[in-house]
Amino acid sequence: MDAQTMAAMIDQTFLKPTEGDAAGRAWIAAQLDAGFATLCVMPSLVPIAAAMLEGTCTKVCTVVAFPLGYALTASKADEARRLVEVGAHEVDMVLNIGAVLQGDYDGVQEDVAAVAEAVADASDAALLKVILETGYLTPAQIEAASVAAVAGGAAFVKTSTGFGPRGASIDDVRLMRAAVGPGIGVKAAGGIRDLVTALAMIDAGATRIGTSAGREIMAALAAGA
């Protein structure tokens, strides 16, 4: 895989609750020349990222109801709409994990649909990714949650927040890809820190990699590792 193709599959991520705007600005500045698909930043950094990334090929991604997913649906939708209005191109929302665990897939779909509608109303160019937090789920729940998320309007399903019981696995990605088919994105995120793991996730069906180690992955690719 060439460097440009790999970079365009990476959501380079900065979701550190201990860092403020100054650190965020410095981090964004250090990513401007990499050609990543997005910079995924905490909501407070979205206006800053939008201004700094203007004119580049890299879009702004952020998170909603992160990392627990149990906010009111209306709160999730309002947060997503506001974030798109201030510059987010992609929104990664955490679905209601408890609803999945109790088998309420109609509720999961309705939750996702409300956020998808808010994102679309704010910008017809923005898209929604839905985080399943697969570490809490059985294979059957991963499959059913993926289907419900897509039915609700998700453009991508995503494995993990990175704050749950574990990150992405190859099996998660394979299950999600099989469940959603070829036309929906699958984002592998959580614990992906090296080129070998990133390529294995892509081989399993991921079309986007969420990682805070994008620079290291690109360096390993350039070195032929």
Summarize the structure.
The protein has 225 residues and is an alpha/beta fold. 46% of the residues lie in helices and 16% in strands.
Percent helix, as a range, is 40-55%
Looking at this structure, what is the CATH superfamily? Aldolase class I
What is the CATH-assigned architecture? Alpha-Beta Barrel
Order of strands side by side in the largest beta sheet? 1-2-3-4-5-6-7-8
Largest sheet: 8 strands, parallel, barrel
CATH topology: TIM Barrel
Whole-number average pLDDT? 97
Q: Which CATH class?
A: Alpha Beta
Q: Key features?
A:
225 residues, alpha/beta, TIM Barrel, 10 helices, globular
Could you explain the architecture of this structure?
The protein has 225 residues and is an alpha/beta fold. It has a single domain (3-223), classed as TIM Barrel (Alpha-Beta Barrel). Helices cover 46% and strands 16% of the residues. Strands 1-2-3-4-5-6-7-8 form an 8-stranded parallel barrel, surrounded by 7 helices. Strand 7, helix 9 (195-204) and strand 8 form a beta-alpha-beta unit. The longest helix has 18 residues, at 105-122. The protein starts with a helix and ends with a helix.
Present the secondary structure layout.
Blueprint: H1 3-7, E1 10-14, H2 21-31, E2 38-41, H3 46-53, E3 59-64, H4 73-85, E4 90-94, H5 97-101, H6 105-122, E5 127-131, H7 139-151, E6 156-158, H8 170-180, E7 185-189, H9 195-204, E8 208-211, H10 214-223
Parallel strand pairs: 1-2, 1-8, 2-3, 3-4, 4-5, 5-6, 6-7, 7-8
Helix pairs in contact: 2-3, 4-6, 6-7, 7-8
